[in-house]
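TASK: fixed-backbone design
INPUT:
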């Protein structure tokens, strides 16, 4: 992903991660596939720091889970994460609405 795209899309990707974590525990590889499905090409070197950052900010909490004899780090949303997702949803709805209006609100001259 190019730097200017990365800066524009990172908030959207974080919201996307929270959305899925609100429905089921997530892990890196599956989340990367999901983001690819939505047209975001994001590698482990980008996604894992993003997950760590969400955990550091208290929006996700990770646990190690044994899957077929291998340790896998899975992330669950926290109550703070749910609240953040709720607020972000309202922001995205607002933006979506204005993006699809014929004319955005006129700014003060
Ligand atoms: Zn999705």
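OUTPUT:
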């Amino acid at each position: 992903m190019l730097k200017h795209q990365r800066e524009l899309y990172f908030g959207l990707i974080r919201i996307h991660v929270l959305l899925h974590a609100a429905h089921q525990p997530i892990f890196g590889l599956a989340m990367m596939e999901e983001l690819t499905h939505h047209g975001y090409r994001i590698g482990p070197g980008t996604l894992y720091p993003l997950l760590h950052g969400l955990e550091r900010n208290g929006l996700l909490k990770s646990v190690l889970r044994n899957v077929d004899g291998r340790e896998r780090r899975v992330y669950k949303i926290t109550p703070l994460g749910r609240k953040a997702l709720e607020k972000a949803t309202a922001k995205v709805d607002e933006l979506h609405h204005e993006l699809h209006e014929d004319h955005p609100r006129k700014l003060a001259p």
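COMMENT: The radius of gyration is 16 Å.
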